[in-house]
Amino acid sequence: MKACSNKHASTLYLLSLVLTLCLRPTFASKKSFVVYLGSHSHGREVTSSDYDRVTESHYQFLGSFLGSCDKAKDAIFYSYTRQINGFAATFDDETAVEISKHPNVLSIFLNQGRKLHTTRSWDFLGLERNGGIRASSLWKKARFGEDTIIANLDTGVWPDSESFSDEDLGPVPSKWKGICQNDVDVTFHCNRKLIGARYFNKGYAAVVGPLNSSFDSPRDTEGHGSHTLSTAGGNFVSGASVFGLGNGTAKGGSPRARVAAYKVCWPPTGGNECFDADILAAFDNAIHDGVDVISVSLGGDPAPFHNDSVAIGSFHAVKHGIVVVCSAGNSGPAPATVSNVAPWQITVGASTMDRQFPSYVILGNKMRFKGESLSAKSLPGKKSFPIISAVHAKAANAPTDQALLCKAGTLDPEMVKGKILVCLRGDNARVDKGEQAALAGAVGMVLANNEASGNEILADPHVLPASQINYTDGLALFSYINSARNPVAYITKATTQLDTKPAPFMAAFSSKGPNTIAPEILKPDITAPGVSIIAAYTEAQGPTNQEFDTRRVLFNSVSGTSMSCPHVAGVVGLLKTLHPTWSPAAIKSAIITTGKFINWFVFLFVCTK
After folding, report:
1. Residue 360: strand pairing partners
2. How many CB atoms sit inside 10 A of residue 29's CB?
3. pTM for this structure?
4. How many of the other CB atoms lie within 10 Å of CB of 455?
5. What is the DSSP letter of 508?
6. The pLDDT value given to residue 384
7. How confident is the model over 178-193, as a mean pLDDT?
8. Which of 296, 320, 452, 483 has the fewest CB atoms within 10 Å of its CB?
9. Is the model more confident about 176 or about 147?
10. Which residues are catalytic?
11. CB within 8 A of 381, min separation 6: which ones?
């Protein structure tokens, strides 16, 4: 094992670890930690015996602190043997402090959780025009990203989606060394498009406890991973839409690329889905497997790079010539909220494109408010219905502020039944507000933005007729309800509108700088489409991801920097095919310096000249 030490850095690591642990209870409970030891010095011809020797060295190292190798074997649940040198294990705080003092330890940190940063866009970015691909398009020049391998660290993949069809693709590239991990889930399959898939859940299990066999599969039962992977490298699929809206041909940025799924995110626990130990294991394997691009639509609170699993994993990937693209986070519009801030990553914010799904709210006084929706249902004819604020429909013992947000158990069905209910955006999920309105008997819902959301409108596949309107229109709507003797309204059925202006503009949810870890490094690096993006989805969930939603869709519209990240990853795939010798730094520079500078942000634009 190569010894790596830095006295000053080690002192800082030890101090921060001791301060953190001193704030915790003193009983000797075991927690899961990641111990980072740097890089391996494997030669060119690496065998399984070499990997076994690394694992044995980790047992010996931890055994020297726990008292025996047997205890170390029981404690270690990941041994990073390929590119990243380190291990993940469970032990108590006192042991963690002692390990941090060892000169070979670069850092040690808790196995903490991170969050997922939850068709038309390629036309908007200049790769096609009105569905046609010009001879000058980068798609044609780069052969649609042919044989570039794009990896995705996410919730897995739904392999049955047409976006992952291998029609017209040749043999799997010879450089690929990965696997299709379907030893437990025999229904999961790979092909010449989806060339590999793995799952990593030991870090998650170390936090939540033992898992049943349903967790032993790279299959995506959430939808997020299928959406992001197909956005980066999905094949051409005609007739894609969400309940008939946004109809067109779905495709990824590199439609002829090969893709691989690395499942690191699982059902939320304590608000977190993706854990550091699993993320590092996925990076270690993806580097070994021979991928060219890694797309990472997840993140957490910014942390020093030596304590950040995404920063460490991406650092090792970039060392091996792999470009890593990360989402900036959805904690805007507050400043200093951007995550994934390491200088070797491409960090992507989210902005709009020139497509909307308008649904108008028409009041009894003839006022009209333009909202958006992807609801499959519509109100009958043009009949107006009574409209009521959720404040006036609150249950007897419900707090007024909670009722206004339409939270579960706060509404009085007697007051809501047969009416259009107006809910305020914030706290609980937008689609959950629609569920609560429907359960209370509402015929429709208007979702009014709060002040923080401003003019940002997101189209959602609500379970009842619904429309989301901006903050200013929401104030006018509440004023009408409070002043009219018998307030009524009508919600029009959603339609698809193209070439809308202005576009692009930044999404309010997109996390902003400055970079809190390295203020001299500007982050995010660039922005790309991340609002109402239509892409492949899982068939294990409804489009709202709520238990009540029994609908199933092949494609879904989702918003977030999670959606903008794979747009850039797809463009990176094209550049890797066109310029295979370019370094990650050269590709990052080419993308950022050719973006369009609009209203103080750099927007991804693909030059066709």
Report:
1. 370
2. 9
3. 0.88
4. 12
5. T
6. 95
7. 96
8. 483
9. 176
10. 154, 224, 562
11. none
* Tokens representing residue 106 in the block: 């670069």
**What mean pLDDT do residues 418-443 have?**
93
Handedness of CA 403, 408, 410, 413 (dihedral sign): positive
**Strand intervals (E) in 84-216:** 84-92, 107-110, 113-116, 149-154, 194-199
d(CA 530, CA 7): 43
**Residue 10 main-chain phi, psi, to 5 deg:** -60, -35
Taking 50 as the threshold, does the pLDDT of residue 256 lie above it? yes
Q: CA angle at residue 433 from 431 to 437, to 5 degrees?
A: 115
Is pLDDT above 50 for 562? Answer: yes
What is the sign of the dihedral through the CA atoms of 265, 269, 271 and 272? negative
Separation CA 515–CA 116 (nearest Å): 20
Query: Which of these, 564, 184, 201, lies nearest to 347 by C-alpha position?
Result: 564
Q: Compute the Cα dihedral for 97, 99, 105, 111 and give only its sign.
A: negative
Q: How confident is the model at residue 8 (pLDDT cuts 50, 70, 90)?
A: very low
Nearest to 88 by CA among 201, 236, 193, 222: 201
Q: What are phi and psi of 299, to 5 degrees?
A: 175, 175
Q: Residue 2, by phi and psi: left (phi above 0), alpha (psi -120 to 50) or beta?
A: beta
Q: Is the peptide bond before 380 cis (omega within 30 degrees of 0)?
A: no
In this prediction, residue 120 carries a pLDDT of 45
| Strand boundaries in 159-231, DSSP class E | 194-199
DSSP state of 494: P
**DSSP line for 230-285:** HHHHPPPEEEEEETTEEEEEE--SSTTSEEEEEE-EEEEETTEEEEHHHHHHHHHH
The model's pLDDT over 499-520, given as tens digits with 9 standing for 90+, comes to: 888 888 888 889 999 999 999 9
Share the mean pLDDT of the chain.
89
SS3 (DSSP) at 337: coil
CA distance 342 to 584: 13
